[in-house]
């Protein structure tokens, strides 16, 4: 037998696996590296986060990733980036292993999300000749496996798309395994570039979880901050937005986009929620001259409204007051956004995912470790990702 297959077989039969989850999200701020110990699988799964690191991208790397996340990207640039991103991520894994004083042989699997370059659910691409969803993540898994010597599970979204779904959010699969409670209605809210949540009503036998994107969390805030406050990558603490005043007509025009009214579940990305969308609404409402802080204040309200509207659709009115919203992702550090969320969802209790024993910044990287664990050791209903041998 191919020794890599023998190793994979052995790993799948171990009572516990050490898996490094790798996630680089739509904010393009860097690579999150989560070393997880996954014991068991499915309903019996127990995950311990042993180590975590965020490896920030340099401003040049962020710029390069932004440049290739454009519809007019050259095929040469995209082809090179597919390998270059994998090399960058492999180097980050090697750095972490060195810092953690571990060898590649100590790790059973890498679980690599890659970098989303273009997300194209049908409602967003609207190409008459192709009535299906599509999504593209780069950072090739074979490169990662070959460069690190660790069996790698990568490219998790394609099977979801092949089965007719939008390729995202995948968080629901892991959220349900890790966080479902028989006694508490839980809503796991991730505030990254895009906001998404999983709703887990309190039931003794959990059914399939509702998981959906809600619209922008930070992606528009970051883009507007970079445009109007050169040198700042994001609005730290939401302090700039806090001194602005939301503009009601602009907010109404932004919220008139059909995405906000679409039924759940739904997904989106910075392809739709870009400054072009904001500028079109500003022209329409003659608000192109509002101050940058008023613009940020308006965009905070927009992100909060997207979340609030979707939560109100997902959670029956009678259950809202008994629902705890556990927030994760960088948007949790934006106090203005968190205040707007609580104002727009007055009856829910807002908490941090840390209350459930998981680091807020690590959550998405842990998710991919859990998905890889299920693919290798779990039941066939959840075998997302491609297995790449070193
Ligand atoms: N101190 C802070 N104050 C305000 N905002 C912050 C702070 N720290 C991080 N953020 C915001 O969080 C963003 C990064 O969040 P995160 O890493 O969760 O996103 P992501 O994983 O890239 O996105 P997605 O989940 O959509 O893929 C930053 O771009 C910034 O907007
Ligand atoms: C296509 C894509 O990369 N989508 C991401 C993005 O970032 C947040 C939101 O949009 C979510 O749908 C998804 O990521 C998380 C990890 C998910 O699949 O659950």
Q: Explain this structure to me?
A:
α7 crosses α16, α8 packs antiparallel against α13 and α13 packs across α15. Strands 1, 2, 3, 4, 5, 6 and 12 form a 7-stranded mixed beta sheet that branches. The chain is of the alpha/beta class. It folds into 2 domains: 193 residues, Nucleotidyltransferase, domain 5; 186 residues, 2-Layer Sandwich (Nucleotidyltransferase, domain 5). It contains 16 helices and 12 strands. 41% of the residues lie in helices and 22% in strands. The structure holds adenosine-5'-triphosphate and the ligand CC(=O)N[C@H]1[C@@H]2OC[C@@H](O2)[C@@H](O)[C@@H]1O[C@H](C)C(=O)O. Ligand AH0 binds next to β4, β8 and α16.
Any key phrases for this structure?
single chain, 390 residues, alpha/beta, Nucleotidyltransferase, domain 5, 2 domains, seven-stranded mixed β-sheet, five-stranded mixed β-sheet, 12 strands, binds adenosine-5'-triphosphate, binds ligand AH0
Would you tell me the overall average pLDDT?
Answer: 96
Category by helix and strand content: alpha/beta
- First-last Cα distance: 15 Å
Number of helices: 16
SSE sequence, one letter per element = HEEEHHEHEHEHHEEEHHHHHHHEHEHE
E-strand count: 12
Unique bound compounds: adenosine-5'-triphosphate, ligand AH0
Question: If you consult CATH, what is the topology of the largest domain?
Answer: Nucleotidyltransferase, domain 5
For CATH, the homologous superfamily of the largest domain is named as ATPase, nucleotide binding domain
CATH class of the largest domain: Alpha Beta
Gross morphology is globular
> Main sheet, how many strands, which sense, barrel?
7 strands, mixed
By oligomeric state, this entry counts as: single chain
CATH structural architecture of the largest domain? 2-Layer Sandwich
